[in-house]
Write a structure and sequence with these properties.
This protein is α/β, with parallel strands linked by helices. The radius of gyration is 23 Å and the shape is globular.
Length: 384
């Protein structure tokens, strides 16, 4: 691709990104924010208006200093949408959201996924969703997928997943994402929940936070048929998701589970349903809270978000966690740590998967990955 055209596409992406962050800016403001000359900004804005991506808004008040009033430029909120999907061993949840996080479509359906048929099943699901959402008349920015397992998000490779029976690496980009003309991204489910908080609360500029994904439906004991509780963690440091040296940040095993051969996160009585036995549920949450308190206090995390089966734990989890935080702290204080449930609850992962797309497409202006064969900027499929 020739350099002038590439530069124009990058600057178009930058303008879209800046309008997404700040809602409304004049052409002069855009030029100043991005370090571009006004002529270039005006030309790009004219092109984006012709495509229907941006709109001219009401005249912006010049403020107390007076001067010439400027016409505001805003994104056309009805132009784009993104799809977020959470994949489980027995079902999926899919959402379509606009750039402001408004849910346009939502469904949860039973559907078995496993390693052997994953490629074909995922392609079929994505194609089906796109066809069924065509009635909205919106341009698709991309698809994000939240997955229960260890994911190398840079290479787009599934390293391992117990619940979906992946025991050897699976090249998601080659087997699934490359089949589509738009970006398709895969991420660990807890990290997706964290992305949702970072992106859709971007104006709050969250810096250091922890997203806790507690679910009771992803894995089942083969002997009893009872659902096994799972915990996944997503760490946000300096406004970015921390994945660790081996893409395993957030993989959780209780320090109280001292059985070196155990693959259980928390040892529970497999003959009891944790969600139906109040004593078992409280014991489980207590052990999880004690582990989390150590991490939160040691890393000095200011915000804690909880997603997943919110309705099952909302009456007891915050108090348990605060008690554990105080017990773990040297001064027995919780330092005003903010604990809140994700407003999306059950949809936190699929919502966060959609947020992942917005981050990659609107905020990351470089090629998708040095390992990818698709050497294009995320917005090229719309702007080229």
């Amino acid at each position: 691709m020739d350099s002038p055209r590439r530069t124009r596409l990058i600057n178009s992406s930058r303008i879209i990104h800046r309008l997404w962050i700040e809602d409304e800016l004049s052409r002069a403001d855009l030029a100043a924010r991005l370090g571009l000359n006004r002529s270039s900004v005006s030309n790009i804005v004219a092109d984006l208006m012709q495509r229907g991506i941006v709109r001219e808004n009401e005249i912006i008040d010049p403020g107390p200093k007076g001067g010439r009033r400027a016409i505001g430029i805003t994104l056309n909120k009805e132009y784009f949408h993104v799809i977020g999907i959470e994949i489980r061993s027995d079902s999926y949840t899919a959402l379509s959201v606009d750039l402001e996080g408004k849910v346009l479509f939502s469904e949860t359906k039973p559907k078995g996924f496993n390693a052997k048929t994953f490629s074909l099943e995922m392609q079929a699901l994505i194609e089906s969703l796109i066809k069924r959402l065509d009635f909205m008349g919106r341009h698709l920015l991309g698809v994000g997928i939240g997955f229960s397992g260890i994911v190398d998000s840079e290479r787009q490779v599934i390293i391992r997943s117990v619940s979906l029976d992946f025991h050897t690496p699976f090249d998601f980009y080659t087997q699934v994402a490359s089949a589509f003309p738009f970006p398709v991204f895969l991420e660990n489910d807890a990290n997706c929940g964290a992305w949702g908080e970072v992106i859709f609360q971007r104006k709050r500029k969250l810096r250091n936070f922890l997203f806790i994904l507690i679910e009771f439906w992803k894995a089942y004991d083969l002997r009893t048929g009872l659902a096994r509780p799972t915990v996944g963690l997503g760490f946000g440091f300096d406004g970015k998701i921390h994945r660790g040296s081996h893409n395993q940040a957030g993989e959780f095993k209780s320090v109280l589970n001292r059985n070196p051969s155990s693959s259980e996160q928390v040892e529970v009585d497999r003959t009891i349903s944790v969600t139906k036995d109040k004593r078992a549920l409280h014991a489980y949450l207590q052990e999880v809270s004690e582990n989390l308190a150590f991490l939160i206090n040691t890393l000095d995390i200011g915000h804690v978000f909880i997603g997943g089966n919110v309705e099952t734990i909302e009456s007891v989890m915050p108090d348990m966690l605060r008690t554990a935080l105080r017990a773990n702290a040297l001064d027995h204080q919780d330092e005003g740590i903010q604990i809140q449930f994700s407003s999306l609850g059950y949809h936190a992962v699929s919502f966060g998967a959609a947020a992942l797309v917005l981050d990659k497409v609107l905020m990351n202006l470089e090629p998708l990955s040095e390992y990818a064969t698709q050497k294009e900027l995320p917005l090229f499929h719309l702007l080229a």
